[in-house]
Automatic annotation (TrEMBL):
Originating species: Novosphingobium soli
D-isomer specific 2-hydroxyacid dehydrogenase NAD-binding domain ranges (all copies): 112-299
GO molecular function: D-lactate dehydrogenase (NAD+) activity
One Pfam family of this chain: 2-Hacid_dh
Keyword Oxidoreductase (UniProt): yes
Stored PANTHER family: 2-HYDROXYACID DEHYDROGENASE HOMOLOG 1-RELATED
Matching InterPro entries: D-isomer_2_OHA_DH_cat_dom (IPR006139), D-isomer_DH_CS (IPR029753), D-isomer_DH_CS1 (IPR029752), D-isomer_DH_NAD-bd (IPR006140), D-LDH-like (IPR058205), NAD(P)-bd_dom_sf (IPR036291)
Organism domain of life: Bacteria
Protein's UniProt name: 2-hydroxyacid dehydrogenase
Listed EC numbers: 1.1.1.28
Amino acid sequence: MDVTVFSTRGYDREFLDIANSAAGAPHVLHFIEAGLSKQTVALAKGATAICVFVNDRLDRTVLASLREQGTRLVALRSAGFNHVDLEAAETLGIAVARVPSYSPEAIAEHTIALILSLNRKLHRAYVRVREGNFALDGLLGFDLGKRTVGIVGTGKIGATVTRILGGFGCRILAFDPSPDADLVASGVEYVTFPELLQQADVISIHCPLTPQTHHLINGQALQLIRPGAMLINTSRGAVVDTRAVIEGLKSGKIGSLGLDVYEEEGDLFFRDLSDEMLQDDVFARLLTFPNVLITGHQAFFTREALSAIAETTIRNISTFETTGQAEYQIGTELLA
Ligand code: NAD
């Protein structure tokens, strides 16, 4: 099948080429660096399938153009599908497939790295020591194992985070509309969302971005949190209202913030912009806080995860080609 791969970076090409070759090279992959948008959709002309990443926008207009150009399959290199208008895809007869699970450990371990780094101020200690400043003032942390951590969303990633935190000895609270009986058996306590906010010293977000979870962490939610609580978001940027969080940081209500995702990351992440002026004033404000640690959507970025993403993506395309149904095809049932 002819496949146009949008938002390609060197690592995408490397892992997709390996997976395609391992499958007997059934597909012709056209790699392009540009993201998918109304301006770039013409680059996919003639491709039966396209392959996209998290910041490619697949709204109704883009999907309609794809359909006109002959595209029949959109293969997501992600688990999240909030960037695709699934209703429009269904109406237009374009199949959408994703990679539902590639390595929950990758994201869970990055989440733990953010928690530990922020708690023990490793991002500040690293710079200090290199500058010959060995003073400890300002680096005081806490014993994580003696604290309560609240997990919002206990699917594959959230559940993996709870298992790792169990090893530290933390008390673990969780909120999820579909509680996991195995986690309850392992000692995780399901509570309401307000209870979680009120009791947790560390709050970590692992739910998908949906209309219901958009700005779930807003000014109202932040009023409920414990003064000085740590907030971590490795799910999707828009689950958190960044402006409200900045107010929380300024007032000291939020003790520290770890982000791997950001509401407006589409204009920033996955590129080297070090020689350009930062145009996003909200993001620039976030960078001024010493108790904020941001990574550029890299939680998924492990060798194992990239291999699994590439293998599943190639399988999705192959199964669609041979049966008309991709292995991990998704539809509007997921919007319920
Ligand atoms: P999953 O589908 O296994 O789990 C999601 C969980 O969230 C489910 O248990 C669901 O019931 C729960 N949920 C839904 N609505 C909720 C709500 N309103 N409040 C609380 N919980 C709610 O998904 P997953 O594989 O664990 O991934 C979670 C999210 O992580 C993805 O949707 C994606 O946005 C994000 N993600 C980020 C990266 C990264 O690199 N930063 C990588 C992969 C996934």
